[in-house]
Design goal:
Blueprint lengths: L1 H9 L2 H50 L16 E5 L4 E2 L11 H4 L12 E6 L1 H5 L2 H11 L6 H15 L6 E9 L16 E8 L2 H36 L1 H16 L14 H50 L4 H26 L9 E3 H12 L6 E3 L7 E3 L2 H18 L4 E8 L2 E8 L21 H7 L5 H11 L3 E5 L7 E8 L6
Parallel strand pairs: 7-9
Antiparallel strand pairs: 1-2, 1-5, 3-4, 4-5, 6-8, 9-10, 10-12, 11-12
Length: 508
């Protein structure tokens, strides 16, 4: 089974769909054809039995007044009569007492009324052993001679009896009472000469009806199966055309590296449309990532060029003027330190953030450590109202760096002081760093988090800023499933940067 499944997977989708649809259609149509054949057979046989019952009742109603008695009656079916004692009597239609027939046709029950009827099924195995005996009895009772009438009677009678042999028969019975003048059996009391007439109905009409269906069904089932398979193949092939168009477009985009192009989106709202929309979304992200990478490389090259150029200049000065070697070395060290900081920031932003955050870090403890450290750097850091502890799940070194970058940025832009507060909000903590300097313009509140963004180039260069601090801070916030935003409150001075991190569940 595994091998078949493996082979089937190598077959193209449209052919696989056609094969499966054809097999399913073949099973369904074959079952339907078999059911239709049986239904037509049973319905026709039932209709014939109902018609035979009408004839049996007609025979029972007229038998008491008729005096006809001959071997073959044209039309309808052979019939036989049985009295209440189980004895077979000659009947109009067949005047031959066929041995064993009385045992196959049970008499009516003693309490049966004049309207009693019955339908009995005689299996082929019950008449198989009587075939030779019935043929011999029939031949001796048939008219002899070569005249056309005798020949016709013999032919029809033989055919009629042959229809009773080796086949399932339906015997339809009706009840009647002979008048006293017709009752010749001394065992029957006056008024008690009752008979049961059986019409023997072979399944000729049912078989004929089924025969008319066999040829169309034998030809129709394979034809319908092929039609379904072809329809499935065509439908699947047409349904996969949009997929092929998407594949071709993606392949062309891959070859040309033109990320501005998009795959066609089908009009139908189905899974193929969802695939096309997802592909276009992926191409959007790839284009944005490629554009960010291009800008990043360009900005990084520009940022690295300045300290490298300064370092190169200082070394040239040291070689040209050995008497100024000490000053040149100090300037070279400053350029090298700046180059190291930019390189470290670039390497951090290039690292994937896939590490699991399992450590519980107290934000209040980090805030106290940094406030004490930055208290000796010109502008004091004032701690606002804070809870006793603010546990968050994350990496302590990264969170230290995040808050340090916010404080560095606040010190560069503060006029007198920096305020650091921690407050609970929702299911997390808000850590806010506020500087009382010039507030940011509304259109710069998001731009400051972009890499290498400088709103004051001269001050940034004087203080050694690389334009990566806030970008790194937001990246750390996202890696900790938090947010970092900037906002102002005109006419109050300054800008506030707010870090929101989800609170960690601590055990009681």
């Amino acid at each position: 089974m595994a091998e078949r499944t493996g082979v089937l997977r190598w077959i193209p989708t449209e052919i696989r769909a056609a094969i499966l649809a054809g097999l399913a259609a073949c099973v369904v149509f074959t079952a339907g054809a078999w059911w239709l054949r049986g239904h037509v057979h049973d319905e026709t046989l039932g209709q014939t039995a109902r018609l035979a019952a009408v004839q049996a009742r007609t025979t029972a109603a007229t038998e008491a007044t008729t005096d006809r008695s001959h071997v073959f009656e044209e039309g309808f079916w052979p019939k036989a009569e049985i009295d209440d004692s189980g004895r077979l009597h000659p009947a109009s239609g067949i005047a031959v007492t066929l041995d064993g027939l009385a045992g196959l046709l049970p008499p009516a029950p003693p309490d049966a009324g004049p309207d009693w009827t019955r339908t009995v099924t005689l299996g082929a195995e019950r008449t198989r052993g009587l075939a030779q005996k019935w043929r011999a009895q029939l031949e001796s009772a048939l008219p002899q001679g070569d005249d056309p009438a005798a020949v016709t009677v013999r032919t029809q009678a033989r055919h009629r009896v042959e229809r009773l042999l080796r086949r399932d028969l339906t015997a339809v019975a009706a009840r009647y009472t002979l008048p006293d003048r017709r009752c010749t059996d001394p065992a029957d009391a006056p008024g008690r000469c009752r008979r049961t007439v059986y019409h023997l109905v072979p399944p000729d009409d049912a078989e004929a009806a089924v025969a008319t269906l066999e040829a169309p069904l034998k030809a129709g089932v394979p034809a319908a199966t092929l039609i379904v398979a072809a329809t499935a193949w065509i439908t699947t092939r047409r349904s996969l055309k949009p997929v092929e168009a998407i594949r071709a477009q993606v392949a062309d985009i891959t070859d040309t590296t033109d990320l501005h192009r998009r795959v066609p989106v089908p009009a139908a709202r189905d899974r193929i449309r969802a695939l096309a929309e997802t592909t276009n979304t992926t191409l959007n992200h790839l284009e944005e990532a490629a554009e960010r990478q291009r800008r990043f490389v360009a900005d990084a090259s520009h940022e690295l060029r300045s300290p490298i150029t300064a370092l190169h200049t200082q070394l040239e000065v040291a070689l040209a003027h050995p008497e100024h070697l000490t000053d040149a070395v100090q300037d070279a060290l400053q350029a090298t330190d700046r180059l190291r900081r930019v390189t470290d920031d670039l390497l951090y932003l290039a690292r994937p953030g896939t590490s699991e955050l399992r450590e519980v870090v107290d934000l209040v403890e980090i805030a106290h450590e940094l406030a004490h450290e930055y208290g000796h750097r010109g502008h004091p850091v004032v701690l606002g109202p804070s809870p006793e502890e603010a546990p968050a799940r994350g990496d302590a070194l990264q969170l230290h760096r995040l808050l340090r970058n916010l404080l560095d940025n606040a010190h560069r832009h503060a006029a007198d002081r920096v305020t650091l507060t921690i407050t609970p909000r929702g299911h997390g903590w808000d850590t806010s760093v506020h500087n009382d300097g010039t507030p940011l313009a509304p259109h710069d509140l998001e731009r400051v988090f972009e890499r290498f963004t400088r709103l004051d180039e001269a001050r940034a260069r004087d203080t050694g800023g690389s334009g990566l601090g806030l970008a790194i801070a937001r990246d750390i916030a996202h890696r900790h499933h938090g947010t970092l935003t900037a906002h102002t409150e005109p006419p109050h001075p300054g800008t506030t940067f707010t870090l929101h991190l989800p609170a960690a569940k601590t055990s009681p």
